[in-house]
Structure formats: C-alpha cells, structure tokens
Amino acid sequence: MVLIDEKVIDVLHHGRAIVSKVELKEKLDNDVKDPNAVFIFKFITHFGGGKSTGFGLIYDSVENAKKYEPKYKLIRWVKAFCCVEYADCIEKAKASAAGLGKKEVKYARRYPYRFAPDQINLAANMVNEPE
C-alpha cells in the first residue's frame, strides 16, 4: 500500500495569522511512523480570516512519496523541511534555473553574438544532458 490517507484539513486560527505548514505537519505527524512522508498543500485562507482549508497526503514511506509525488512538490518539501538526505532534488532544480530554457538555447545558437559564450555552453549542456 502506498498512500495511507488523504485528508482535507480545516484549521481554525482566530486572532492570529495563518498557521505555518511546519506546525500543521507536526500535528499530523502523531499518526505516522515517518514524519517526512506527510505532504500538505493548497491552503486557502477564507475571507475574514480565522479559518484555512487545505489538503494533506500521508504516505507509508518516504521512498513511495518520492516515487509518486511530482518533482516540484519534492523540491518545495526539501526546502521547507531541510531534509538534507534528499538534497539531490534541489540540485537539479538549481541547475535548471541557472541556465537558459529550451527556446533561449535555440535562439542563442541562431544568434550567438547576442549571448556570452558561457551562457550558450551552459544552456546547451543542460538541454542535452540525459536524466
């Protein structure tokens, strides 16, 4: 079994700002063996404040969570909760953010005099790099 539970989370927080995801994660961790296998997202604060609603997914293990969660959620998860052992997700995100996109690479190849040589090489390596 991969996904243990899906939850719609309603948070009442009268008299204070929105509750941080770290606090919510700690509250949900009481039911789970591995606290890193909990993902909470899509929190919306209702008009007037005092109530927020969001979703939570609880997996049976971190390996299954890494397998089935989208990459962008894994990157946010690593950044938010400082999971050092899963920092390889962040390194891929930094590499793709540092270079140029696919369209810019084509543009740089067409008009190389408009770009610095290191930008063209960096972008070409990123596009041609196998994953």
From TrEMBL:
GO cellular component term, pick one: ribonucleoprotein complex
Annotated family: Belongs to the eukaryotic ribosomal protein eS24 family.
Task: Answer whether the UniProt record assigns the keyword Signal to this protein.
Answer: no
Please name the SUPFAM superfamilies in this protein's record.
Ribosomal proteins S24e, L23 and L15e
For this UniProt record, the keywords arranged alphabetically read as follows: Ribonucleoprotein, Ribosomal protein
Q: Does the keyword Ribosomal protein apply?
A: yes
Q: Name one Pfam family in it.
A: Ribosomal_S24e
Q: What Gene Ontology biological process does one annotation of this record name?
A: translation
Q: Which PANTHER family match?
A: 40S RIBOSOMAL PROTEIN S24
GO molecular function of the protein, one example? structural constituent of ribosome
Q: What is this protein called?
A: 40S ribosomal protein S24
Query: Which InterPro entries does this chain map to?
Result: eRP_eS24_sf, Ribosomal_eS24, Ribosomal_eS24_CS, Ribosomal_uL23/eL15/eS24_sf
Upper taxonomic classification of the species? Eukaryota, Viridiplantae, Streptophyta, Embryophyta, Tracheophyta
